[in-house]
Amino acid sequence: MIIVTGASRGLGNAICNFLIKKNIEVYGIARNVEHLDFPASACDITKPEEIKAIAKKLKSEGKKITGLINTAGVAAMNLAILTPSEVAKKIVETNLLGTIYCSQIFAPLMIRNKDGFIVNFSTIAVALGLKGESIYVASKAGIEAFTRVFAREVGDFNINVNCIAPGPIETDLIQGISDKIINNIMNQQLIRKKYTTETVCDLIDLFMDPKSKSITGEVINIGGV
């Protein structure tokens, strides 16, 4: 079974459907799961006790957790000095701490079997240092650092941990962002184009493959920087 956070929409939902088509058992985590047609639990990933309850439930059901994909996240584009403190707190708690909490809680279920993989999500905005995204970038840069070190901590248990940093992806996350901003980001990529959820799923497929166990602690910037 693979755990996917942020499973209710956008990239997380696309990844769940991709895995299901490959006949892989999926368990989704999101704030709202009522509309999902696969097993899932409503959960606020900024609250460790809610994540622990899900882990306990799956463990009691005898589920073998083989992977964790930390897709859940929030974004807000604004200059740091114009960002309300409550918004900054939400960004950091959801993106960085949410990823850390889920990894802390679900990794032990993989450690028991000495096998598994974790995929975290950053953004190409970290490498590009995009103006107006400083707090969002800070939360994602933390995920990249966490990925590198956590990969060392669980490597002895045959668990690989990697991070995908997409550029603009056709999901609801970029709705409302002007074409000018999107084009500016794309023009800074080595391969200048807007990518799709299928591109991300191809990377997920790579990280799941037992032949890719040697790939760990890496950050892959989609489109290149």
Strand runs, count: 7
Strand/helix succession: EHEEHEHEHHEHHE
CATH fold assignment: Rossmann fold
Could you tell me the mean pLDDT?
93
Low-pLDDT segments, ≥5 res:
none
Q: Biggest sheet, strands in spatial order?
A: 3-2-1-4-5-6-7
- How many domains? 1
Spatial shape = globular
Question: Can you put this structure into words, describing what you see?
Answer:
- Helices cover 44% and strands 14% of the residues.
- It is an alpha/beta fold.
- It has a single domain, classed as 3-Layer(aba) Sandwich (Rossmann fold), CATH 3.40.50.
- Strands 3-2-1-4-5-6-7 form a seven-stranded parallel β-sheet, sandwiched between helices.
- Helix 2 (48-60) packs parallel to helix 3 (85-111) and helix 3 packs parallel to helix 5 (134-154).
- The protein is globular and about 50 Å long.
- The N and C termini lie far apart (33 Å).
Keywords, separated by commas or semicolons:
alpha/beta; 7 helices; 225 residues; Rossmann fold; 14% strand
Task: Reconstruct the topology from this structure.
Layout: E1 2-5, H1 10-21, E2 26-30, E3 40-42, H2 48-60, E4 67-70, H3 85-111, E5 116-121, H4 124-128, H5 134-154, E6 159-165, H6 179-186, H7 197-208, E7 219-221
Short description:
With 225 residues, the protein is of the alpha/beta class. It has one domain (2-221): NAD(P)-binding Rossmann-like Domain (Rossmann fold), CATH 3.40.50.720. It is built from 7 helices and 7 strands.
